[in-house]
Write a structure and sequence with these properties.
Elements lengths: L31 H11 L10 E5 L6 H15 L3 E7 L6 H12 L9 H12 L3 E7 L8 H9 L3 E7 L4 H4 L2 H7 L1 E5 L5 H15 L7 H14 L2 H17 L7 H9 L14 H12 L5 H8 L5 H13 L3 E7 L5 E7 L9
Parallel strand pairs: 1-4, 1-5, 2-3, 3-4
Antiparallel strand pairs: 6-7
Length: 351
Amino acid sequence: MEKDFLFGNESIFINDAALDYNFIPQILIHRENQQAYIGNSIKLLEHGRNGRNLFIHGSPGIGKTLATKYVLKQVEENTEEIFPIYINCWKHDTSYKILLEICSLLGYKFTQYKATDQLMKDIKPSLNKKSIILCLDEIDKLQDFSILYFFIEDIFKRSLIFITNEKNWINEIDARLKSRMYADNLEFKPYNYNEILEILKQRIEYAFVKNAFDHICLEEIAKKTHELNDVRSGIFLLKESGDIAEARSSKKINLDDVKKAIDKLQEFKVKEDDELNNEQNEILELVKKFSGNSVKDLFLRYKKGISYRTFKRRLDELKEAKLITLEEKSLGAQGKVTYAYFGLDKKLVEF
């Protein structure tokens, strides 16, 4: 009779790295059409010509970044004539920071005390030796556009890819820049329930020992994932359910493990702390400590010398990243007040 509990160093996982948000499966299911579109946009680079620029948008957690990284990985593995660069503007939110990251990727170390313009002049010859794909994820976080003008005007063979959750971002930038970018539009639609089920099933096959998940447990996670419309939440639930089952030395995940994992979704961070800048981290910790306070009260507690408008913008960024919840309540004749809660769950203040 097969035992149903773990001994010694046994684990329920065979590859828990497959439950990392940055893990790229060998086969990326249900985004084949989008991958083909991205691939066709950069295909001209193979012939030493400019590729097309691409504006990718859609709600969080539906495969925009993963599909793009999949294509970039294929390019990197199959040719040395094209240099793919992926940068997330959440962390690198200025042209200068992006240039420093590109310098690091190029192996160019003489960056100290150099201004943005000088760095551009320094790396221009290296970039023009190959065809370049520059992918700027979360492009809506970029604070200035000189890096875009640099690539459009000074890099001869390139394809620019912009990824964002904000559909209207491209319509809000300077008209002159927009016309010069001339980016094709690629919208990612949310996964349906059956697609989510298959994606999670694939991750289970990569990550867990055989028969660790009953179908009823998988369905429970798929339903919650579909409700949140964010596959990353589902991957978190797979990992958390496995950890809970393993903590009780079980070889199988049950519904109770799944329900406990779902209860932990409030603390789920789609973005790791090291992807946030110091200011965002400080404000996130403030919200965690004083969850349920009004935004104005939190601002008064922050006391770090930024404007209320900047503070509110940082909260909006954390909300977009699904790290906090903002809830507006009407006070009748007294106006409205916004409350901030740590995590994904809404906990409305009662009056």
